[in-house]
Amino acid sequence: MPNGNFETNSSCPISVGEIYKSIPWFQPCNIMGNVINSSSTELFNSCNTTIVDVPINFAGTQSALSGQAYAGIYLYNSMDYREYIEVKLTDSLLSGKKYCLSFYISLAETSDWGVDMVGGFLSNDSLLSPTPHLVISVAPQIENSIGNTIIDTSGWVLISGSFIAQGGEKFLTIGNFQYNVNTQLTPINPPFPSGYSYYYIDDVSLVCCDTSGTCDLPKDTLSVPNVFTPNYDGVNDLFEIKGLTKGDKVQIYNRWGTLVFETESEKMFWDGYTTSGEACSGGVYFYTVTLLSGETRKGYLTLIK
User: Fold this and answer.
1) Cβ–Cβ under 8 Å, residues 113 and 197
2) Edge-to-edge strand list for the sheet holding 249-253
3) Is the confidence at residue 218, as pLDDT, over 90?
4) Is-contact 293 281, C-beta < 8 A?
5) Is residue 157 a contact partner of residue 90, using CB atoms and an 8 Å limit?
6) Distance between CA atoms of 177 and 29, rounded to whole angstroms?
7) Other CB atoms within 10 A of residue 65 CB
8) Domains and CATH numbers, the chain
9) I want to staple 290 with a disulfide (CB 3.0 to 4.6 A). Which of 125, 177, 222, 249 is the partner?
């Protein structure tokens, strides 16, 4: 999770709608195919002494949970108006692995309502809404429990949960993904019929919490040399690919694209002879490895005589 506490900024925010200064966060609305970062979704920082200051700003008074910065979005108004914040992760999630997402929110004092619906949605691609400020209707992996309205204006409330990744998820979007009809409200004194709910957000975290203890990308188990010298001196006489399993196919072609050798043995050796027993000349050859998983590896090797 890059910049989960919004502390790393390209410059100090001076007005509303500048979440894009907290790189790499942005607002996922889209107009005519362009991401718009200047219309809404705030970055607050104590470096500012105006409407987006910390702790006192246009929406209320709140100190950062950590550091001196946090984000702010509208989670509700009477016209199904919504705001979201989105970030590109440092790496894609792995299929079948368990991840834990958490973030903290606090209701701004000027809000008319407290709401229950806020969550985090992980996606392979960025969520670019064709119409800005309307509900992005997706099913978030992590969402606050229905009916548990969040009305704390003095402290920070933890939103958290775990999920199993489908694989390839690389973007996180936070907001209210439910329409007003599915959003429960708690009035804040005094509530206005056409009022809104504005929340601060801080300390976003996404970590591997799989029982295997790691969500690292799988390491390449294949070891492939790039040169061999079949001159029978007992040194580097064979081209050998290590790390294969039975059923993995290896094929070797000469520079004209003619197949000279192939095998499906997990112990792969090539002595520089064709399958018909003819000695191959020195030069560059091309190999392909087709794993049982369907993955294909390709590369070059040099035969020196």
Assistant:
1) yes
2) 227-228, 296-303, 283-290, 249-253, 259-263
3) no
4) no
5) no
6) 14
7) 18
8) 19-208 (2.60.120), 227-303 (2.60.40.4070)
9) 249
Q: Distance from CA of residue 38 to its chain's centroid?
A: 23
Average pLDDT score over residue span 31-54: 73
What residues contact 278, with CB distance under 8 A and at least 6 apart?
none
What are the residues facing 287 on neighbouring strands? Answer: 252, 299
Tell me the C-alpha distance between 110 and 72, whole Å. Answer: 13
Q: Which amino acid is at 169?
A: E
C-alpha angle 200/73/20, rounded to 5°?
100
Query: What is d(CA 85, CA 105) in angstroms, rounded to the nearest whole number?
Result: 13
Asked if the model's pLDDT at residue 71 lies above 80, the reply is: yes
The tokens describing 263, both together, are 């095998």
The half-sphere exposure of 91 on its side-chain side, counting CA atoms within 13 A, is 9
- CA dist list (Å): 157 to 86, 140, 217, 225: 20, 18, 33, 55
Q: Which residues contact 207 (CB under 8 A, 6 or more apart)?
A: 1, 99, 100
DSSP 38: S
Place of tokens 């979005």: 73
The DSSP code sequence of 164-233 is: E--S---EEEEE--S-GGG--EEE-SSP-TT-EEEEEEEEEEEEE--TTS--PPPPP--B--SEE--SSS
What is residue 28's predicted lDDT score, i.e. its pLDDT? 82
C-alpha to C-alpha distances, 245 to 36, 267, 269, 293, 300, nearest whole angstrom: 50, 8, 13, 11, 21
User: Is the pLDDT assigned to residue 268 strictly greater than 60?
Assistant: yes
